[in-house]
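Saturday, quiet lab. Running sequence design on the structure tokens for the scaffold JK sent over.
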């Protein structure tokens, strides 16, 4: 296995955990809205709280797919983990764009950095799939 893969998987998980804490806090009404959803609301309204809840579910799915792909768990079929890792990469790449153009400076810095790290880590995992045992 490429020596960089385990380090990047740990980074991937740490970033997802931090994003999950943020999203959970937003669902619960924390005044951190400047960090998400365009930064327009200090406290998210109901529909955006639902969106944050959906983001939490996605983060768990992303973690399961990537961790399964490197063989640390065995929850999904190998083809699903392989394709899923590329899907996670695509989602992360696409999420860089709205974060980078957000009117909210905190969201631009935090969201863009997090999306870029998730994209880079999932790309390395996807590209090293053949060497992962």
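Result came back. Writing it out in full:
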């Amino acid at each position: 296995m490429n020596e960089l893969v385990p380090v990047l998987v740990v980074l991937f998980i740490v970033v997802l955990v931090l994003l999950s804490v943020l999203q959970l806090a937003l669902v619960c009404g924390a005044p951190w809205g400047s960090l998400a959803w365009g930064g327009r609301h200090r406290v998210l309204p109901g529909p955006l709280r639902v969106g944050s809840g959906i983001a939490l579910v996605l983060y768990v799915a992303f973690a399961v797919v990537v961790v399964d792909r490197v063989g640390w768990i065995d929850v999904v079929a190998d083809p699903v983990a392989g394709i899923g890792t590329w899907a996670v990469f695509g989602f992360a790449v696409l999420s860089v764009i709205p974060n980078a153009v957000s009117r909210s400076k905190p969201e631009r810095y935090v969201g863009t950095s997090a999306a870029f790290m998730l994209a880079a880590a999932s790309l390395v995992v996807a590209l090293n799939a053949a060497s992962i045992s």
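Notes for JK: The chain has a mean pLDDT of 94. The chain is about 70% helix and 0% strand. Ask whether to fix the surface positions before the next round.
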